[in-house]
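Renewal narrative, Specific Aim 1. Our central claim is that a sequence can be written position by position from structural information alone. The example that follows is taken directly from our test logs and has not been curated for this report. It begins with the structure tokens describing the chain, in the order in which they were read.
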């Protein structure tokens, strides 16, 4: 079941990008390593994250633990980004590839295996979960870059 949740590192990055959706799990880091707990969800104030079972706050180094599907839905609904996966034959092997589509621009903004001219530059991933994790990291990095760019323009 734990494989259904994005990693702590990516969950913390989503928190920094503004993710604040109800989740069935949380990550917490109280200085002795990262822990995972079921049974937590969004605090009613929507501006802080709290453990509704014990009433204690997760803290700065804690965050919600979204499922992959929750993270990708948030990317779609909040940022207009959609990931499409496909099978790519590379060197006689089927691999899992992905592209990121931007609804606002109505175009593909990234393809993991093609260059800007549409030429194949590498194969995909050996597993679908590998492609899923790579696409999650790519979107997070894209949004972080856009946020930095926006902050410089302010």
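The sequence written for that structure reads:
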């Amino acid at each position: 079941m734990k494989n259904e949740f994005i990693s702590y590192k990516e969950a913390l990055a989503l928190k920094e990008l503004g993710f604040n959706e109800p989740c069935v799990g949380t990550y917490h880091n109280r200085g002795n390593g990262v822990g995972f707990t079921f049974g937590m969800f969004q605090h009613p104030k929507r501006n802080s994250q709290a453990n509704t079972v014990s009433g204690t706050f997760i803290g700065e180094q804690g965050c919600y633990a979204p499922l992959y599907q929750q993270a990708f839905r948030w990317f779609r609904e909040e940022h207009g980004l959609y990931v499409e996966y496909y099978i790519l034959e590379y060197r006689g092997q089927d691999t899992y590839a992905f592209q990121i589509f931007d609804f606002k621009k109505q175009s593909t903004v990234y393809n993991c295996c093609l260059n800007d001219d549409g030429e194949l530059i590498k194969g995909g991933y050996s597993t679908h979960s590998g492609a899923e994790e790579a696409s999650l990291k790519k979107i997070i990095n894209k949004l972080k870059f856009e946020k930095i760019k926006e902050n410089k323009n302010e």
